[in-house]
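Ops channel
N.P.: pipeline sanity check, posting one input/output pair.
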């Protein structure tokens, strides 16, 4: 990787009663779109606030463009942030809101108005400049907040759950808008989100955090298909985790014994018999057959849940394990998958992913 544009180096943050960020390292390239994900309280927003300079680290450093940010106040970093709550000023007009950061930089009135109008135009808000914030829709306010963040022409934009207050339709439109802006501006976006769909749609790489530590960094499809550990596998939601032990193996495949039976999984390196052999199989890689007497694991359909154009089928195996399987509507109908139906699960061993051994 070339010299990172943003480098988090053993970055650490302790509050009086909580260790929120635990010595994390992360390199972000110039122009990258990075999404930080993880359960509530894992330290995502704290990490973003540390980059912005809104909070001071208790250890480690942040470098932006090669320069240490130690002691550099937020207003000198030019790392604006967009929040879910937007934090727009209700007593200022739309154009005054957008021009506000330039006022802080002592840019002259005519010039800051001209630049604010330019950004409003760029975000599809031409003609709304003199309105009050209260006269705008949720999506329009979101655009004002983004225009205000970009008016100083930063090389980094920080976004903390910016779309979570919007309805589903608007969220998707704003995703497209953010994606377009990122492409056009070529600047670095660091985006905190709960929503896997947003991270997958937008990010070049995603960072998964848990309890103040980074668990995995990678392209969305790689984190999904090849989780680094059980936490990531379970966090990604559409994986099934099977805990097992290596029994033996040959030809790049390992034999794994588990409470559900014996399975083969591909292995990059051979592991000795007796080693941990936990593996995942993604929900969309599982084949279902009607009846419980075919080759594979037999189970019973517990229920179904819609996820867009597909459905997730929840299955309990005879051994008491729960599996989730993703199927298209027509497959659900062909198999008549209703609660209580007996089914057999199977998959191609090449699609199983052996979790790397903890060091
Ligand atoms: N000012 C503070 N003082 C004390 N503890 C704090 C402070 N700010 C955050 N924390 C704690 O640090 C931890 C991480 O908080 P953070 O806001 O980074 O989480 P998050 O991953 O962004 O969560 P969420 O998704 O809920 O916003 C939490 O346990 C939180 O309670």
């Amino acid at each position: 990787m070339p010299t990172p544009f943003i480098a988090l180096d053993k970055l650490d943050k302790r509050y009086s009663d909580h260790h929120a960020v635990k010595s994390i390292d992360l390199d972000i390239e110039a122009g990258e779109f990075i999404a930080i994900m993880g359960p509530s309280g894992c330290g995502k927003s704290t990490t973003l606030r540390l980059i912005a300079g809104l909070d001071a680290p208790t250890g480690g450093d942040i470098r932006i463009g090669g320069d240490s940010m130690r002691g550099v106040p937020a207003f000198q970093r030019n790392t604006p942030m967009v929040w879910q709550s937007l934090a727009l000023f209700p007593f200022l007009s739309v154009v005054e809101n957008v021009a506000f950061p330039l006022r802080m930089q002592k840019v002259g009135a005519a010039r800051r108005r001209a630049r604010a109008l330019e950004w409003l135009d760029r975000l599809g808000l031409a003609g709304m400049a003199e309105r009050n914030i209260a006269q705008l829709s949720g999506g329009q306010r979101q655009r004002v907040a983004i225009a205000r963040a970009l008016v100083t022409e930063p090389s980094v934009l920080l976004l903390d759950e910016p779309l979570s207050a919007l309805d589903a339709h608007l969220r998707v439109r704003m995703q497209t808008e953010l994606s377009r802006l990122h492409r056009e501006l070529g600047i670095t976006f660091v985006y905190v989100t709960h929503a896997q769909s947003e991270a997958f749609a937008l990010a070049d790489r995603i960072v998964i955090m848990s309890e103040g530590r980074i668990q995995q960094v990678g392209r969305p499809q790689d984190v999904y298909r090849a989780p680094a550990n059980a936490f990531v596998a379970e966090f990604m939601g559409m994986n099934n985790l099977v805990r097992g032990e290596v029994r033996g193996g040959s030809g790049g495949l390992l034999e794994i014994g588990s409470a559900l039976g014996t399975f083969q999984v591909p292995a990059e390196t051979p592991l000795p018999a007796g080693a941990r052999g936990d593996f995942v199989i993604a929900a969309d890689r599982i084949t279902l057959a009607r009846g419980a007497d075919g080759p594979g694991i037999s189970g019973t359909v517990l229920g179904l849940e819609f996820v867009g154009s597909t459905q997730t089928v929840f299955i309990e195996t005879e051994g008491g394990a729960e599996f989730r399987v993703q199927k298209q509507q027509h497959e659900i109908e062909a198999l008549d998958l209703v609660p209580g139906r007996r089914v057999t699960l199977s998959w191609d061993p090449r699609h199983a992913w052996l979790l790397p051994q903890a060091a």
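N.P.: looks fine end to end. The chain has two domains: 6-233, 238-354.
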